[in-house]
Design a protein that fits this description.
Chain lengths: ~375, ~120
Amino acid sequence: MTEFKQTPLNALHRDFGARMVEFAGYEMPVQFSGVMDEHLHVRSEAGLFDVSHMGQVRLAGAAWEEVALALETLVPQDVLGLQDGRQRYAFFTNEQGGIEDDLMISRHGDELVVVVNAACKEADLARLQTLAVSISLESDQALLALQGPASVNVLGPDFDDMRFMDVRNAEIAGCSVWLSRSGYTGEDGFEISVAAEDAQTLARHLLDHPQVKPIGLGARDSLRLEAGLCLYGTDMDAGLNPVEANLAWAIQKVRRRGGDREGGFPGASIVLAALKDGVHRKRAGLRPEGRAPMRREVPLFADEKGGAQIGFVTSGGFGPSVGAPVAMGIVADSLNDVGTRLWGEVRGRRLPVEIVQLPFVPARFKR
Amino acid sequence: MKYTEEHEWLRAEGDEVVVGITAHAAEQLGDVVFVELPESGANVTKDDEIVVIESVKAASDILAPIDGEITAVNEAIVETPNMVNDDPEGDAWFFRMTVADASQMEDFMDEAAYKAFIG
């Protein structure tokens, strides 16, 4: 697997017995002790994820306003209003109103750091380089995620005052880091950016704690699915607008119709119209009634027999904490009500599936 | 015990064979969360997809190793799928079937050959 890129923690993963796979051009750990065990450990204690394959890009300019307003030309979020030391969820849109990638943006003084998906890194960098601000890919930074209810216990009382989506600089185990109280599991936790050369030291320090286990991409996917969080390229993509992806909550008022900085991002007319007029299909939570998981691309129907397809599963599998199959999918708006029973066609047979409220597992963020 | 390249084991019992998946296959699959078995009494042909097994990660098919009739299936693994991880070569057998063509049994590996096969 030498043709794939490696993160600074590659050797550590092997020391901990990881099964390695290719993901977005990187050699990454898919599991250590097993997906089920790792998943449940994160929900009960704490797990450490290596997410160094994701892109960290710094935006700098003469003043905060310049940097914030530049990024606002690519995303429908309120960037200008982001307070120093705060983080926000965002997405790049295209001219059709579709989503090109989702990202976390954090303000560091007058600068921004955005964290983008590994598979979209090059395209996102090219997109950002069109802006009249200074752009640098921080390829010498690693990114670790410590997730689970014991996370703050592991880091120590110095971090107890951070709220969900707070960002700050700190020193942990002698390593200079910046960290945010956020993540991709629905649990309390932190994402920690650290110099590549310090990544092993920091990771080993955290893994030395008896409550922390290393966690692979397999459990990362089942945890985010139970938390109702979208995976780019799966639950949302360039052909789905933010309202269809059920992400309208992430578009602040100031960028909507009648807001002070209305529009001004790619596909704004389409997205703003969708916000006002609604859409014909939308992402929903799906709970198969039986035991058979309904995975990506399972077609959905209104009836047990016949009729046209009314939606499809975008991601699905077994939810270890739910103890049953869980899924998300795109469903025609006319049928998209919690409690509605649909039918998913699995191996030629239609099986009942109910539309449910997301998330499947209550979020436990430190608000 | 005989082994297939599809990572099934076959154990002769009287005129019939009992079929399951190997410990190696169970380990590769990871946590098994769903098993769908054929109907008892079904006539199957070698390489028919007759069992669906899903782990947390993915779905896989298990093929009929030989021609024959399914004479019994192990409902316990449908009720408790993770038995397949706990005891794949014992209590977590999948089905029992007749042997329509004994010559098909000659294609399979013995334990030493299977161990070499999985490296």
